[in-house]
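writing this on my phone so excuse typos. first protein, seq and then structure
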Amino acid sequence: MSKTPEVLVFDLGGVLADWNGIDPLVRLSGGRLDREAARLFWIGNPWVAKLDLGECEPQEFAAAMTDTLQLGISPEAMQRQLSDWLAGAYPGASELLADLAQRFPLAALSNNNALHWDKIEREFDLLHHFGHTFASHLLRLRKPDAAIYRHVQDTLGAAPEAIAFFDDNIECVEAAQAQGWQAFHTKGLEQVRAALAAQGWL
């Protein structure tokens, strides 16, 4: 077991919320992208970075995405799909956060954009559990760049080893670990529960 943290920090999509931009992207590409290439698109594509950093509007990103990947659909249809790929909070996510909040301060750290953030605020019943929410498009910082972890750490006023972080992308987990955080690679709510239980924090 690790040191009991002072704060728990959660990614949203793929951890607490059902976001899958990988399998639909494989289908839209007609198989030109495999699952790993589709996953890496969301990590490394310059247009994704612009969207995450609030430097372009969702409709502009949708148009660039259809053109860059030659997906053969209209930007309007692409934007609708982008919204649909964020389906909702995982069943039990709000209840888990409510339980954890009785013992730990909670924060959210998410690469996000105006389209998805608005949907999360309106529909997901998650954000009110967090004392702090760190959204890339509002901060103009994104994972896995070191600057966003330092910003979170400074804002929380916590030592690196006192932060426990849960993310579904290994690059973001490794970047947090490089800052000295306790970081766990978790995909979906059951893996989050398992990691928390293994550490004795649940």
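second protein below, same order as before
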Amino acid sequence: MRKLLLVFLFIGPTVFSQQENLQEKSFFTQKLYMHLSDYNRKADLAYRFNDYEKGQELFETFTSEHLEGSYMDNFKFQSLQKKKEVNLYDYKKPVFLITYASWCIPSKGEVPALNELAAEYKDQIDFVILFWDKKDKVKELSEKFSSDISIVYVDESKNNGAYVVRQLKHSLGLPTCFLLNENKKIMDIRRSVFPPMQTEEETAYRENYIALETSISNNLVNKYEEVYADNIQVE
């Protein structure tokens, strides 16, 4: 009896601690299920009256209060470069994930900004662009992007599962950026910068670069470097 008590004293707290961590870990699709309908109701009302500033404010409040801090569900997609099916969790570094489709093109200056950032941070971050399209169309669109960026796609006509895929596409609109740490925890969710059409190309590029680089620096790089440094010290 005394031996069992000692085992409980040493092992019990650890087990309960692990169980608590599992219970506290919430996923993107769970949070959407709980809060999306309320956000949609408020956002639809704002856009009905052309109050785009209010709509953006609602988006930022919704994502920061309910979605950031949750974990992106693992899901599968096709890799254009590897020519096979891969999982989101196959990427071991922090992930910069942005969703596109052929009917929702990148904003002016966004592609060159993404290409430059991918070149700068490729050793620390996996840049992944997810298209909702058929393979031939994705192949055509991918030519604009650097080889430092992983181009993946989901052909919904062949997607028979992955509830998260439908949620990603239909809940927050396109394009949307998700910044995930190495554990796939959502650190930031943001929409693309859309400069006015008359904005010069260089100015549009700088606006996109600054916005994206700021988000990356605040949410991914510093935290990842600190974790990496701690691991080196432990070893």
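The chain has two domains: 27-67, 73-229. thats all i got for now
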